[in-house]
Fold this sequence. Notes:
Layout: H1 9-22, H2 26-57, H3 61-75, H4 78-97, H5 105-110, H6 144-154, H7 158-166, E1 174-180, E2 184-189, E3 192-196
Antiparallel strand pairs: 1-2, 2-3
Amino acid sequence: MTAPASDTLLARIIHAVEEAQGKRAPTQRFVDQFARVYTPLVFVLALAVAVGTPLLFGWAWMTSIYKALVMLVIACPCALVISTPVTIVSGLAAAARRGILIKGGVYLEEARKLKFIALDKTGTVTEGQPKLVDQQLFAAADDSLRIAVSLAARSDHPVSKAIAAGIEAMPLAVSDFGAEIGHGVYGEVEGKRYILG
């Protein structure tokens, strides 16, 4: 089976990372708005120092221009404006290298508010498919595990497959098997009707 390079998993990951980098984080939007006002203000102030001080206070032209240039260098918001997107891109790239795909700087910034992270232990998140890790029987008959495995083994639902693979019991014959979407499966085992949901 062949597919264009744009349909590969790697291409989709690269596209998702590029899309994530295109979304502007709140801090980045704030810095851009701040720089939009701050930069012209600093430039006008430096121009006033360069031209105004010799005319109003009698400073030497070279001293005034020198002080205006020093003011421009010190007050330049370039480091602030450049550091924000660079930080976000490096954070997204570092996460992607570790197998975590973050949809953008917005979500990267929001992660600072997290107090707890909960992941299921079934393997759905980590392995991409559920896995039975424990079972508990409450006043069940001796054959209840075999009946559960028998019904689960007939279904193609991922949870049923996990139950069938996770319980070590010999399946029994099932007749009149069926499934109700969103509810589970049913069938007759040894003449009795059972529902697994």
